Amino acid sequence: MRTAVSIFLFFAFMLASGTLPARADAAPSTRALADTVGFAHRAWQMDSVMARIRSLNRDDLARTEQPEGTAWRAAICPHDDYAYAGWLYPAVLRNIKAKTVIIFGVAHKAWRYDLENRLVFDSFSSWRGPYGKVTVSPLRDEIINRLPADTAVVHDPMQSEEYSVEAMIPFLQHQNRDVEIISILVPFMDFERMQTVSQHLAKVLFAVMKKHDLRWGKDVAILISSDAVHYGEEAWGGHNFAYFGTGSRANELAEAHDREIISQCFQSELTKQKIARFYSHTTNPDNFKESKWSWCGRYAIPVGLLTALDLQRLEKSDPLSGVPIAYATSISQPHLKVDDLGMGETAIATERHWVGYPAVGFR
């Protein structure tokens, strides 16, 4: 969740109430950038960001190194400004080895378009990346065409203004110029609906991957974009997220609660019970459109992980095992210097306004 005004395209306003069908014969189109402040959008910016992360966070990256050959089948990565969350991106994404990455993103502004209960796809043929266009996998249209009509919608305006998927692309493209993506935004859903939608999606993924002889982890990976708690009572658009109050002790309690959620819900063998526990930790039981503990991925994470769990069962592959890689906040570490790169911050980071960052991989 950001307090800065979102930057999005003119046609997002013009088509705000429309939905676009998936068309195999549609003219090629490139999804433009939504955020040119918090993220790198030029090659020299991204090269500089990576060089600085390797220098400033050398010890952090070394401490979170995984065994040789690790390839995440699924992962959770933060999506905040590179100045704040910088090193956690490569800590997670360096072990995404697949060419095709299915990215479950947050639909921060789903309320603008009355979107809920359906997965949100785009119809673009490519996305802007710092090293050139990033191809949208042709698997996307196969997936959309196989899904029941009531489980998915193609909505370019929502996809165009959402930044949670966009944040992943420069790091993914930096390590693999040939990476292909499929963006899936997850708006409001209750847990029962999540289970239904993820079962349909997993069945379709299983069928499409089998048809093309694609292996999970090697050829296709699931990536979920989410920041952790948004804490404090300052500059949150009128919201008060100071669950434990304010001050250093309150912040310590909030960080400890985040770490407990990660440990309880994502560590070791993944189960439906653990995913349900995450949902209950973060979503208001009386109104699924409201947060209980303000993780912005409270819909994307359960749907992404339920899909992964269903896919694992269909494949009869080894159980998914969660590895908490790291956790940090926007005030727990030195910020990456980016202002001289033409970048910056889209929100403040203070004792009364900070964000948590989860970094989790699933073998």
Provide the descriptors you would attach to this structure in a database record.
alpha/beta, eleven-stranded mixed beta sheet, 12 helices
Q: What topology emerges from the helices and strands here?
A:
Blueprint: H1 10-14, E1 30-31, H2 43-56, H3 58-63, E2 74-77, H4 82-85, H5 88-93, E3 100-106, E4 119-121, E5 126-127, E6 134-136, H6 139-146, E7 152-154, H7 156-161, H8 169-175, E8 180-186, H9 191-211, E9 220-225, E10 230-231, H10 248-266, E11 268-269, H11 272-282, H12 300-315, E12 321-329, E13 354-362
Parallel strand pairs: 1-5, 2-9, 3-8, 3-9, 4-7, 6-8
Antiparallel strand pairs: 2-13, 5-6, 10-13, 11-12, 12-13
Explain what the structure shows.
Helix content is 34%, strand content 16%. The strands form two sheets. Strands 1, 2, 3, 5, 6, 8, 9, 10, 11, 12 and 13 form an eleven-stranded mixed beta sheet that branches. Helix 9 (191-211) crosses helix 12 and helix 11 (272-282) packs antiparallel against helix 12. 48% of the residues are buried. A hairpin with a 6-residue loop joins strand 5 (126-127) and strand 6 (134-136). The chain is of the alpha/beta class and 363 residues long. The protein contains twelve helices and 13 strands. It starts with 9 loop residues before the first helix and ends with a strand. The radius of gyration is 19 Å and the shape is globular.
